[in-house]
Amino acid sequence: MWTTPTRTGPYGASLNADEAESWVADKGETTGMYVRTITVINTGTGRQMKTVFSGYKIDNVLLAPIGTEFWASSNVEGRIYIFDWLAQTWQWLSSIYARFHFFLPINKLQP
């Protein structure tokens, strides 16, 4: 059992496919700040591996269905940031502009 600090205002987290890493969204809500990072933690040791630059106030970090990417949603920017966790480059591959809430496009929510 371990505990470890993240950056300001941790919000959502997800494990990678082999469960060796936990990606934690650093939203910053508790401080009223616009935080732009994701903290990557080694689940075996509990130590921080990296702080990854991302979008403002990331809400959710989810492992993509293909298992090689993380998708991080920024409600402030209206974007989904895509990271390749296998490459270990720690940079986002691309971002998708979308009007969404919890990864569901607005037009899918309407009857």
Description:
By secondary structure, this protein is mainly β. It has one domain (10-109): 6 Propeller (Neuraminidase). The protein contains 1 helix and 10 strands, in the order E-E-E-E-E-E-E-E-E-E-H. The protein has one helix spanning 106-109; strands at residues 10-15, 21-26, 37-42, 48-53, 58-63, 69-74, 79-84, 92-97, 100-101, 104-105. Strands 1-2-3-4 form a 4-stranded antiparallel sheet, with no helix packed on it. A 4-stranded antiparallel sheet has the order 5-6-7-8, with no helix packed on it. Strand 7 (79-84) and strand 8 (92-97) form a beta hairpin. The chain is globular, with a radius of gyration of 14 Å. The model is unreliable at 101-111 (pLDDT under 50).
Name a few traits of the molecule.
single chain; 4-stranded antiparallel beta sheet; 111 residues; Neuraminidase; 1 helix; mainly beta
Detail the topology: elements first, then pairings.
Layout: E1 10-15, E2 21-26, E3 37-42, E4 48-53, E5 58-63, E6 69-74, E7 79-84, E8 92-97, E9 100-101, E10 104-105, H1 106-109
Antiparallel strand pairs: 1-2, 2-3, 3-4, 5-6, 6-7, 7-8, 9-10
Quick overview of this protein structure:
The protein is mostly beta strands and 111 residues long.
- Rg, nearest Å: 14 Å
Return the domain count.
1
As a percent range, the share of strand residues is over 45%
Q: State the secondary-structure class.
A: mainly beta
Approximately how much helix is present in the residues?
under 10%
- Total strand segments: 10
The name of the CATH superfamily reads: TolB, C-terminal domain
Unreliable stretches covering 5 or more consecutive residues = 101-111
CATH class: Mainly Beta
Mean pLDDT: 81
Described by the principal axes of the CA atoms, the overall outline is globular
